[in-house]
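#struct-pred

JT: dropping the chains for the assembly here, can someone run the whole complex?
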Amino acid sequence: MEPSLENYLHAQIPLSEAMGLHVQEASLQKIILKAPLKNNINHKKTVFGGSLHAVATLACWSLIYVNLKEKNIQAEIVIQESQIRYLAPVTADFTASCAMPDMQLWTRFITMLEKKHKARIHLTSQVYQENVLCVDYQGSFVAIRNPTCP
Amino acid sequence: MEPSLENYLHAQIPLSEAMGLHVQEASLQKIILKAPLKNNINHKKTVFGGSLHAVATLACWSLIYVNLKEKNIQAEIVIQESQIRYLAPVTADFTASCAMPDMQLWTRFITMLEKKHKARIHLTSQVYQENVLCVDYQGSFVAIRNPTCP
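RK: done, full complex below.
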């Protein structure tokens, strides 16, 4: 439970509240976001593909957000591109998770951000339902640091 | 203006109503969907990337939907995968459009759907703001026909 991240997302991105987004886990190692079928249902009574993409994007974005906040680095985090594969329909409330990537990649990202004030990182997110991988998401995110801030 | 498509989307996919989605054009040749900044704003006061992806997906889905309806072909239309590039921030109300692809590709799609009851098509959608391309989207959609229906 990480009410502050959830409150931040709901306040800053009203669509996250409309999607019924709930932060289930927000550690420095992993983000798990949960959303109900009801708010995100489509004509086939499964989860709308746009909702799956949005929640996966927010899981990745949030992982960078909580880590930069922890390091007191003020930076804008921008999604640059993403790819998503819908492997199986999602028929119930769902979670999208994003785990810390390889530590070498992460360290390079932070070093670049500190030295060049801009760095890019590639993250992945997955949606599982009863141990079946339903959605595989990859996104490239760019962080742009304000050089006058910490 | 195509109130029936708009009503269908709002009724079947409640998130489309939460996004303030409006059908600006729904011809057999082109779909243009419009959505306001207000419902889709993020922490940077630009349009949330998840909303841009969702509206682009619905533009492509709708192009197939209106064309199959016109031909009285009953089929499920499923998004299989997509790629999106965010080229510039969107800072105002926006439209996502999807135009009919090359006619040979479309004819092959319909022929496959009629013969094999399943066919795949690749569509693109773009978001422009004041003549600047802000979002470039590509999606693969599969239609699965119910063989007992027309």
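JT: nice. The beta strands of chain A are 22-26, 30-35, 75-86, 94-99, 118-129, 132-145. The CA atoms of residues 30 and 99 of chain A lie 4 Å apart.
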